[in-house]
Amino acid sequence: MRTPSLDIEYKTPEQLTKMREAGLVVASALARLRDAVAPGVSTADLDALAEETIRGAGAVPSFKGYQGFPATICASVNEQIVHAIPSPKQVLRDGDVISLDCGAILDGWHGDAAITVAVGEIDPKITRMIRVAEDSMWAGIAAGARALRTGRGRLTDISAAIEASIRGAGGRYGIVRGYGGHGIGTEMHQDPHVLNYGRPGKGPRLVPGMALAIEPMLTLGSPDTAELADGWTVITRDRSTAVHVEHTVAFFADGVLVTTAEDGGRERLGELVTTAAGVPSS
Asked: With a threshold of 0.90, does the pTM exceed it?
């Protein structure tokens, strides 16, 4: 089953359930990283911990070696939005904020998720921006789940819900353009691209068998970006602080499963979560 203009990989319920196993590896790695974030810790230290966790679970890091990327995680600090390469020279300080993006492959299937974590005491404006980003991600996931149930929803219903959640939260946040979510499955990055803004009702229909990584990226200033000389690190052009969050979502016939959330998304989505993959209802 293929769309005419996009090469979307549709999975069976059994294959989506396998993606859940990869997602749980990512969830475990990010939980360990969250606990390890502290002043004096380097991003290289965090990278080593992530690789140890992923390989210890019998999985392989998705990022390491991907188009030449040299590390297991992307560890983006302050004005770094995404794709920053971990380094022993990047030592965290009190007041920093760090985005940790992590992927794992298990039995040929990918999981991909990101969290943004405070280092010690941070500016309350940044704490609020993290919450706004997280809420917008869940709003997008919920919109996708509702669209799936109607049978009439389209991809940009997710995009519009993310933007509406951000705009409705107050504040003047920059929604990063040019970067966003993506399809995921036997490869980490697949069609379709998932924007974090736009009008609803466009793009492919949301149907069972799809899997998407949904990942808002916000700034405290301009959404304009620049890429550093390393060819990977993306920063805010005005050097304002950025945040990035992400979950992988699998679409079943009776609802969605957030493969990279320990509870499958039950707490935030309630009955929109599938029962097909054995996710407990409480």
From this structure: yes
